[in-house]
Every structure is written in structure tokens, then in C-alpha cells.
Specification:
With 181 residues, the protein is α/β, with parallel strands linked by helices. The chain has helices at 42-51, 68-79, 134-138, 151-157; strands at residues 11-14, 18-23, 35-40, 57-60, 63-64, 82-85, 88-89, 100-105, 114-118, 143-147, 160-164, 173-179. The chain has one domain (11-179): Ribokinase (UDP-N-acetylmuramoyl-L-alanine:D-glutamate ligase, 3-Layer(aba) Sandwich), CATH 3.40.1190. It has a six-stranded mixed sheet, with helices on both faces. It has a four-stranded mixed sheet with strand order 3-2-8-9. The longest helix has 12 residues, at 68-79. The chain is globular, with a radius of gyration of 17 Å.
């Protein structure tokens, strides 16, 4: 197995980006009025391990057009050395698309950590392989690691598909290794 030495991206993934607020100083959510805002997803947290060591990583996602939250997410990805690609989707009114939002209690003492998710209207639920120029993206790879990617992209570009459980849902997500693209 040969790894392409001049590949642009070390790792790529498909992900739904969201926002998390966490109380300062490990306070309980219901007792706090000051929160830290973070742009996050399980997949980009994995990418962050590689990107913090220097190699560039890529996340394929969707954003809500004109949203200050989308601008915040893009800025946070750039700060973490994670490139992004994906369309800006119109919000479609007050009940339209938005980025997932969660509230995290870090826990302290006997209080266990806990996360409350709000995924209603989540723009990431509409991820579609047609949104990404996979031929252009994957030309950078001789060996590509693709995390939590949908079967529609796998069929065209990958040699092995291994189902793995996702911490994000009860539905298994797919992980694959694409060789010789």
C-alpha cells in the first residue's frame, strides 16, 4: 500500500456541522448564564487530531446561506486547519434550515456529563453526494480515509466498505478506505 506523498488532504469526511454551548467553569446548565460557543461535530473532532499535527484535512458539509452561525463554523474550521467544501443552502424562512445545536453539561462531582441535542430543521440532514465534485476532491488521494460517508459516494470511489457503529445515532454509519484513486 502506497501513500501519495503530495496529496492535498490527509483525511476527508462527510459531516453535519453544528454548534455547542457549554457553561463556564463546569457549572450546571440550569445554574449558568455564561456559555462557551463551539463549532463541532463528531467527525471533525476526529479530523482535528490529524489537522493539529499539521496535515490538512477536508470536511464535506452544508451551510445555511447568510447565517452568522455558518460564518462562525467556517471560521472555526479554518482555525483548526480543516478545509471545507459544500453548498450554502437558503434557510427557507423561520422554520427552515439551521445548523444543529446542542447544550452540553460537562458534569462535576456526582453530576454526570450530558448533552441535549436540537436537530430539528438541521441542514446536515440534506447532505447529498451531488453537492460535491468527488472526482476533483478524490484526485488528491492515492490513499484516502473517509469517515461516516454515505453509500452514494462510496459506490463510485471506494474499494472497501465496513459498517461501524456511530456515537451520534443508532443507525450504523459507514467507514471506508479508498485505495488507488
Amino acid at each position: 500500500m502506497k501513500v501519495k506523498k503530495n496529496a492535498k488532504y490527509a483525511v476527508a469526511c462527510l459531516s453535519s456541522m453544528g454548534l455547542r454551548i457549554t457553561p463556564e467553569n463546569r457549572m450546571a446548565v440550569h445554574n449558568s448564564n455564561r456559555f462557551l460557543l463551539q463549532a463541532t461535530s463528531a467527525e471533525t473532532n476526529v479530523l482535528n487530531v490529524t489537522s493539529s499535527l499539521g496535515p490538512e484535512c477536508l470536511v464535506m458539509t452544508r451551510f445555511v446561506a447568510g447565517s452568522p452561525m455558518a460564518a462562525f463554523i467556517k471560521a472555526q474550521l479554518r482555525a483548526r486547519n480543516i478545509a471545507y467544501v459544500g453548498p450554502d443552502v437558503a434557510q427557507g424562512g423561520p422554520w427552515g434550515f439551521r445548523h444543529q445545536f446542542n447544550i452540553a453539561d460537562s458534569g462535576f462531582g456526582l453530576r454526570a456529563p450530558r448533552v441535549w441535542n436540537d436537530r430539528a430543521g438541521e441542514v446536515g440532514r440534506t447532505l447529498d453526494a451531488k453537492d460535491y465534485d468527488t472526482k476533483k476532491i478524490f484526485v488528491f488521494f492515492d490513499l484516502a480515509r473517509i469517515l461516516s460517508i454515505r453509500p452514494c459516494i462510496l459506490a463510485a470511489h471506494c474499494s472497501a466498505v465496513i459498517p461501524v457503529p456511530s456515537p451520534m445515532s443508532s443507525v450504523p454509519k459507514l467507514m471506508t478506505t479508498a485505495l488507488g484513486l
